[in-house]
Amino acid sequence: MNNHYPVVIIGGGQAGLAMSWHLTQKHIRHIVLERHQLAWAWRHQRWDNFCLVTPNWQCRLPGFPYDGSDPNGFMLRDDIVAYIERYARSFNAPLREGVTVEQVTQRGEGFQLRTSAGEFLADRVVVAVGNYHRPRFPEIAAQLPKHIAQVHSADYKSSRQLPEGEVLVVGSAQSGAQIAEDLHLDGRRVHLCVGSAPRVSRFYRGKDVVEWLEQMGHYRLTVDNHPLGEDARRKTNHYVTGRDGGRDIDLRAFALQGMQLYGRLLGYREGQLLTADDLQHNLDGADATSQKIKDSIDAWIAEQGIDAPAEARYQPLWQPEPGAKPIDLRNISAIIWAVGFHTDFSWIDAPAFNANGYPRHTRGVSVHPGLYFLGLPWLWTWGSGRFEGVGEDAEWLAKHIAHHAARAEPAENEYVNDAR
C-alpha cells in the first residue's frame, strides 16, 4: 500500500469529514485516520438522553445540510451519529477507522506519522481532533471514600449505571447542568456544585434565542473582533437544553423542586466536602448573562422595527440562604465530575504550540508550515467547533492547502475499515 498522501487528516468526526469533503471537491488525494470509529465521541462520550442544544437547522456540514423533518428540533445522540454516517457515505469519504496516530514528526518538507497501522507520509497534516482529549479529575477525587462511585461526564450514560442513593454533580456548565437535569428527571436526589458558567434562555419573544442571534450576525463574529479576543476560546459554554423540544435550565427552579445547590467545591475534610460562599453570586451572574443577551435582542428588534411579542423580565424564583454549606458524603453514592478535559497535543513533535500546549495558529493555519488545525472552539468563529461553522473553516484551509500543496493527485476515494 502506498502510504504517502498529499494530505492526511487526523480525526473522523464532523471536522475531519468537513475537511475531507472540501479536499474531495478540489481533487486533492488524502486520507482520514480515525483512532476509534466514525463519530466516536458522539457515540461513546454522550449520555443516553443527550441531544443538541442548537436547532437542527444549524447543522450545515458542507454539501450536506440537515436532511431531517424537524429543522426546529434538536437531534438526539443516535440521530447525530446517523447524520454523520450519512454524510461520510454521501461523498465516499476516504476514512480508515481503528488507526491510532502515535506521533507526528517533521520529515524533509513533509511529515512522518507513526501509527498503529504502520507508517504514513504526508505533505500536509490537518489535526481535527478537537481539544477534549483526556477527562479531567481534580486532585480531591483521590481523597474521597472508596464506597463513592466516581464517573467523569464523558462516561456518564444514565442514572441506571450508578448505585442507589444520592448523586453529586460537580460543575454547572453545559454538560454538568444537563446531567444534573437528567438525574433529577429520573427521580434521583441531586446535589450540584454551581460554578460561574453563564446561562441563556431557550426562547424569547416568539423565537428560539439562537434564531435571533443568527439574524443579528452573532455567530459570524470572528475571534479577532470578539471583545475578549483569543480569551473567547477559554469561555465556558452557556447552559440550556434542547430536551423535549427545548427549554431553559433554571437551577433556581430545580432548587424549588428539591435539588440541593452549593457554591464551588473547595476541598475535603472528615467526611465532608467544603464549598465556597459564592452560590448567590454565581446564580446572579448566570441570570445577568441571560438578561444581557435578551437586552441585545430587544435592541435588535427595536432597530429593525420587528413586530415581536413583548416578554416580562425574568424574576428569580428562589434565593439561597447566605453562607457556605458543606456536603455530607454519608448519603452520597456517586459523584459525576463535569469539570472538563485536558488538552494533549504532545504526540505532535513540532514547534507549533504555546507554553500551555495550545496550538499557535491563525484561522487554523499553524505557525509550523504544512500543519493545520480544525474543529477547535473559536478557531475563527463561534461555530468553529460545531456543525454550524466548521465547514467554513474547512473551506478556508482547503484553499490554503490547494494553493501551497506540492502535489494534488486526483484519486477515487475508498472506505477502509481497520477497526475489525
UniProtKB/TrEMBL annotation:
Pfam families from the UniProt entry: Pyr_redox_3
Record GO terms (molecular function): flavin adenine dinucleotide binding; monooxygenase activity
Keywords tagged on the record: Oxidoreductase
Alphabetical list of InterPro entries matching this protein: Auxin_biosynth/cation_transpt (IPR050982), CHP04046_FMN-dependent (IPR024000), FAD/NAD-bd_sf (IPR036188)
Source organism, top-level taxon: Bacteria
Gene3D superfamilies tied to this protein: FAD/NAD(P)-binding domain
Keyword Oxidoreductase belongs to the record: yes
Coiled-coil residue spans: none
Keyword Acetylation: no
Protein name as it appears in the record: FAD-dependent oxidoreductase
Organism, scientific name: Pantoea coffeiphila
Organismal lineage: Bacteria, Pseudomonadati, Pseudomonadota, Gammaproteobacteria, Enterobacterales
